[in-house]
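Quick illustration, no need to memorize.
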Amino acid sequence: METRRLYYEDSHLKEFDAAVLSCQEGRDGWHIYLDATAFFPEGGGQAGDRGTLDGVQVLDTREVGGAVCHVTDSPLPVGKTVHGVLDWAFRFENMQGHSGEHIVSGLVFRRFGYANVGFHMGAEGIIVDFDGFISPEELGEIELAANAVIWENHPVRTLFPEPRELGNYSYRSKLDLTENVRLVEIEGVDLCACCAPHVKETGQVGLIRILDSIRRKDGVRIRMLAGSRALAHCLTESSQNSRISSLLSAKPGETADAVKRLMEDRDAISYRLGGFMRREAKRMGEDFSPAPFGLFFSEDFSDAEARILANTAGPKCEALCAVFFGGGDGRRYIIAAGPGGDVRGFTKDMNAALSGRGGGSAAMTNGSVKASEQEIRDYFGRYFHED
């Protein structure tokens, strides 16, 4: 069944009236078809519209067999004329984002000749893949140029050329289209085949932010935002920077340098503390008197200090030397065998008794157990007493 697509006639139409042609229950709701609609179905990387039909919630809109299917939470009578209202904030955000992507992709194509080979609009932002690499510095220049296009307020038009006329147009397209081609033109910036509704002038995009990029094979993937979502991101970043500025007693434009100094101070303290902890571990091992086994606990030791202690005290133990370190529910361990010993069997039994996991060589094992210090001490006492 054919649907008159009102969003092609006016992309800013927020309300409309139409007749219900069909209503059937589906797995995800009621599937309603109208003789006309301003709801855009999912396509071209843009999400389907939401809103209401006579107060019934439209949860999603999708293309099915050349018609627009409205997925609703309740049925509507066939033949009834209903009043549709779009979730305009959602639609306009999507139009801002999609038009913003066209601006960026058009500028990239004009400057570098790279094609947009992947596009998705989601909660994490607008993802765009290009088939050539663009450096972060060059993306910064593209971002500035894209916002200049917004400030210049270029008109955005749609064209439906006849198949015989397509050869007269040089346009971007991911598909080899020959008929029913709809072109979206941003005057002086881009001409691209696209099925989605767009803003009427680039000024309505408001703002474009390129957030980050990663290399993908010979190309690049960028993540960007446009419109109200870009503004919300900037406001969040500004708020966070203001809080950091206050915490560091630094001017907002100097927070990065202040954080760098703080990290350098932290690294210096960590280095000195690490040296102290390693010396303490070695001292504990040297002060340990020969015994059947050694058992040590430390919440402050890392793996490095635990190994130093186990290696230093281990040769003085007839059976083994065990170091348990870290706190919380799971305590990590390193167990070193005494001269000529093998701690793998002991480790296996201990893991079974203390909800542990881990292993290693005959000379040394490592892992973790879910047990308190007292439970570990009790186990060692029973184990070696039984032997």
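The mean pLDDT is 92.
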